[in-house]
Structure formats: C-alpha cells, structure tokens
C-alpha cells in the first residue's frame, strides 16, 4: 500500500494555514506556537515540519520580535510532490527505481529490475499535477477565495 507519512500530511495542513496570511514578502508571518494552536498539531511537530519546509525553500523564517514563518510562494504554485520530497525524500516505489544499485539483495537476478521506473514516473507526474491549493481548498487560498467569490456574479 502506498501511504504518505503523517509528517507530509501535517506539512500540507501547516502550509494551508500559512496560506491564510499570504506568501512572499507581503505575506504576514505566523509563529510555530500559533500554527500549532490553529491546526491542533503539537508544537514540536509543527517546528519540525517548518524546518523541513524551510530547508526545501517552501517556507521562510523571519527573525526578530515579530518573526515567524510564511510561504515563499502561493499554494497554487506548490506541487504536492515538492512537499512530499521535502518531508519524506525522493519519491520511489522500490529501492532500485531510477537506477539505484546495491540496495536490493536480489538485484542480480531480478526479472523486473528497471521496469518499475515507468510506474514511478507516472506517480511523480500525478503528484506534480496536484497542488497544495487543490488539497487546501478555496478557504485557504486568498486568491482562489477571491475568484470563487466573484463566480456567482458571472453565473447565469
């Protein structure tokens, strides 16, 4: 069974919460304790997730008395695959995907060696085609929320 880690799920939740205050230099910052309170995720876990997301360049920390964290770009431009790689590492179904060598004791006699690559590529493409905004929904993306609120005006 393919399953994402809890930390990846938490990372998406944290990013969705950060999106409520915008992204980039114009975005307001939120603290780890504030995010923990707003999301119901334990503060040490939020801090760990923020560190991983920061290392990957998905969030940035702002130092100082009014410091905290904010998104580096809007959620619609963040593919889910970026979050998964930031938290869980490279997306790979088996140890021998993408030419991995020496990680399987049966690689010398394996009849399917190298044949997992197309499956792995399809999964990567699918995860790259879904953004964090798609998961967060319009309530967590100010730009999407504004567009959605205008939709009834143009409906017939």
Description:
The structure is a single chain. The protein is mainly alpha-helical and 156 residues long. Helices cover 47% and strands 5% of the residues. The protein has helices spanning 6-19, 32-39, 43-55, 80-88, 117-128, 132-136, 142-154, and strands at residues 59-62, 68-71. Strands 1-2 form a two-stranded antiparallel sheet. α1 crosses α4. The protein is elongated and about 60 Å long. Mean pLDDT is 83; it is low at 144-156.
Number of helices: 7
Written as H for each helix and E for each strand, in order along the chain, the element string is HHHEEHHHH
Mean pLDDT: 83
Helix content: 40-55%
Structural class: mainly alpha
* Major sheet: arrangement of strands: 1-2
Topology overview:
Elements: H1 6-19, H2 32-39, H3 43-55, E1 59-62, E2 68-71, H4 80-88, H5 117-128, H6 132-136, H7 142-154
Antiparallel strand pairs: 1-2
Helix pairs in contact: 1-2, 1-3, 1-4, 2-3
State the main characteristics:
mainly alpha; two-stranded antiparallel sheet; elongated; 7 helices; 47% helix; 156 residues
Outline of this structure?
This protein has helices at 6-19, 32-39, 43-55, 80-88, 117-128, 132-136, 142-154, and strands at 59-62, 68-71. The protein has 156 residues and is mainly alpha-helical. A hairpin with a 5-residue loop joins strand 1 and strand 2 (68-71).
């Amino acid at each position: 069974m393919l399953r994402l880690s809890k930390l990846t799920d938490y990372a998406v939740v944290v990013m969705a919460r950060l999106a409520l205050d915008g992204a980039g230099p114009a975005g307001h910052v939120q603290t780890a304790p504030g995010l923990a309170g707003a999301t119901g995720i334990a503060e040490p876990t939020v801090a760990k997730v923020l560190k991983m997301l920061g290392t990957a360049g998905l969030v940035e920390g702002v130092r100082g008395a009014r410091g905290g964290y904010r998104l580096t770009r809007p959620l619609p431009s963040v593919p889910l695959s970026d979050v998964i790689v930031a938290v869980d590492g490279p997306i790979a179904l088996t140890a021998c995907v993408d030419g991995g060598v020496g990680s399987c004791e049966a690689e010398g006699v394996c009849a399917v060696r190298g044949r997992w690559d197309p499956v792995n590529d399809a999964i990567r493409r699918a995860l790259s085609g879904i953004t964090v905004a798609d998961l967060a929904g319009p309530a967590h993306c100010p730009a999407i929320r504004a567009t959605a609120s205008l939709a009834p005006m143009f409906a017939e």
